[in-house]
Amino acid sequence: MKYVVVLGDGMADWKMDSLGGKTCLEKAKTPVLDGIAPRSEVGLCKTVPAGMKPGSDVANMSVMGFNPADFYTGRSPLEAVSMGIDLKPTDVTLRCNLVTLSDGGAYEDKTMLDYSAGEISTEEARELINFLKDHLDGGGFTFYPGISYRHCLVADCGKTGHTLTPPHDISDRKITEYLPKGENAHIYLDFMKKSYELLKDHPVNLRRKAEGKNPANSIWLWGEGTKPALENFEKLRGLKGGVISAVDLVKGIGMLAGMKIIEVEGSTGEYHTNFLGKANAAADALIGGLDYVYIHMEAPDECGHHGDPEHKIYSIEQIDSKVVKTLLERLKGERFAMLVCPDHPTPCACKTHVSDPIPYLIYTNTKDLGNGAPRYTEDEAAKTGEYVADGYKLIEKLLGIK
């Protein structure tokens, strides 16, 4: 039996007046999912445990079958592992976003204009982070360049327990209330202030501004943590697993679980990612010997953070027409089961993650699992009455199909 997870990050949403009172899932044209929904189990699942923040780290860990209450130690170390950073047990890592803050006034009074600095290119970002390394590395702190706006700061023998706010949670807000708090807060804030002075007139940013793009004029530190120890997926589940993702966070979870990381050319983490390439890479891996592949697509989440329902709907339609359709066609000669779900909702109205239960769909070509849902949407999932209270147990429903 083969198993595949189609994870549309942040795909679930709230109803919007601009969409005629519908969610993005309801508005999207999804003929492929509509075709299999009547033969699928559709329901709701709580992927974020009570008391934990609804981050993609916690939620993806949950959907992969790991209880965040047992294994979660912070977001940044998951990304650091994927970036190839050799972490010591005493290291504390922090996610380092390149962001766009408003001009003028004191740093503390600026506004978070863009948590991704206009989805800055990896090449531009690498130049900026390396420039910061030259000026700010030292004293046990080291910056590491990553992909696009996502980077890492490692503190040797660092401290945890700080209050650090994700920048995508404060879009269009003054940052005053959300600056670092805790034992090393003054160090982190000093890094952030110095980064602004170093970056605001950097040639990369002057060029971006001239082109009408948002400048990456500051770093923003958040997501602290220490290296976690996940159980090996194959030993735990008896299946050879693989992960396809453009983001270091999900790759890091896969690497820590001993899963194969499958790279796909043109995989960007945005709505212009290579959807078809991801589907074909997953099918190749399953036909070629893997038993389980987790396909992660960041696009709907990014669109939700930008309050962009148009491209969120487009992303959902691409997942339907290019990912789900391709998998159904290419795996028809195999016995397989497929889980389609988001990790958490990212409503366009609030531009951030929420802890609401997510809709899921489980389909197999071996039997009819239909439980009355005519479509895969939030409302139809709620109507079936199916509910998984512990998100990390959702995988048991999928793997229980033989």
CATH architecture tag of the largest domain = 3-Layer(aba) Sandwich
CATH class of the largest domain: Alpha Beta
Mean pLDDT: 96
Beta-strand percent range: 15-25%
Number of domains as seen in the coordinates:
2
What general outline do the C-alpha atoms trace?
Answer: globular
Gyration radius, in Å: 21 Å
Q: Poorly predicted ranges (pLDDT <50, ≥5 residues)?
A: none
CATH superfamily of the largest domain: Alkaline Phosphatase, subunit A
Helix content: 25-40%
Major sheet strand order: 9-8-10-1-11-12-2-13
Give the oligomer, counting copies of the same chain as homo and different chains as hetero. Answer: single chain
| N-to-C CA distance | 6 Å
What is the CATH topology assignment of the largest domain? Alkaline Phosphatase, subunit A
Strand-pairing-aware structural class: alpha/beta
Number of helices: 15
> How many beta-strand runs?
13
Largest sheet: 8 strands, mixed
Spell out the helices and strands N to C: EHHEHHHEEHEEHHEHEHEHEHHEEHEH
